[in-house]
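Posted in: Protein Modeling Q&A

I'm a second-year student putting together a small comparison for a lab meeting, and my supervisor asked me to include a predicted structure for Dihydroorotase. I've never done this before, so apologies if this is the wrong subforum. The sequence is pasted below exactly as I got it from our records. If anyone can share the structure token output, I'd also love a short note on what stands out.
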Amino acid sequence: MHRIIRNVRVMDPSDGFDAVTDLAIVAGKIAIRGAIAEDFQAEEILDGTGLVACPGLIESSLQAHSPGHGRDGDLASELQAAVAGGVTQVVLRPDTQPVADTPAVLQEQQLLAEKLALARVQVSAALTTGLQGQALSEMTALLDAGARVFSQAKQPIRSAALLRLALSYAADFGLPVMLHPEDSELAAHGVMNESGLSMRLGLPGRTAVAEQVGIQRDIAIAALSGCPLFFPHLSTGAAIAAVKAARQRGEAVHCGVSIHHLLLSEQDVGFFNVHAKVLPPLRSLAERDALRRAVAGGDVTAISSDHSPWGVDRESMTFIQAPFGISAVEWLLPLTLRLVDDGLLSLMAALQLLSTGPAQALGLPVPSLQVGSAADLCLFDPEAAFTLNPASGASRGRNLPYAQWDLRGRVRYTLVEGRVVFRA
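Accepted answer (user: helix_wrangler)
Welcome! Here is the predicted structure, written out as tokens:
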């Protein structure tokens, strides 16, 4: 199908292109970026006046509960939320039910994603059996079944020897590994940041030192094999500094942060707000500001929504009982634009952290709007203001602490391989 997008502001972090122009799409690829002849035949012409076109966003940590019991959403509902947010590619977390540690689970996920034909889906395979950190998964079989990355989701590996073996195998395969860096004994069973606030609330605290100790160990072990690492959701300035130092030594290490850790702090737990329970936990205001400085300084490769939807039946749980996670993939772009409004990032830098940055960290093809590239696009109105109503989203998860926030930035179209998969 031939499609034209006229008079749109094209912003492409892959090459720094930023201009109001036209795009032509032919056979799922960008055919023209620039003036299009009047006699160019197209089945559809989209008016891009006032809109920004950028490469489709990439969500590096999406819990879609497929396979699963369905009450918290599934791949269909959560991919609908993703494309409504301009996301054209997602990496599924392996902590499903059952865990994605067998070829059968990965094949089921890929077949369902192909049938849905929404966002591109990259399946991650569990690094250890059942994510329990006791024995390696059948990594070769999982690779053959389509694994694009190995991951421990939110579970650290206690055994340094087992981690070294896992990273050595992954390095041989040439695939990156996503790790949750944390010393599990220091973390204990904390449900929020360890501080004076956690003591006053009577909630078990999770010390920031657990992350700082964990990441130093993981980086040191990875250096023995040269395995590329991606820490997708760091929560402390010290952890990001450790990644920066490793990169300066020439090690293949990237890090990301969730948008929640850049906009919220432990204060948002308030009076036991289960919607602000996330792992790693929201930290102090000082740590939040340290993360923001790291993002502004270019020390972070990616920003994610760390999407974890939970059904409404979880609302009656206590803070200790409630699962970790925030459901926000549909709102990732306007939430990130808050950082632009705060003067922390330029719009181009923000789009880079949502698209080309995650691709680089994950070893995926870098999305681009250059001629010949796959036509995976997000078209959004950067000035469209709205008040966030969680019930208006496509996700089945309503567990987000942003209700009634005033935001700007509405996605109008999402295209994958030139197909319009979302139209506002």
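A couple of things worth pointing out for your meeting: The chain has 13 helices and 18 strands. The mean pLDDT is 97.
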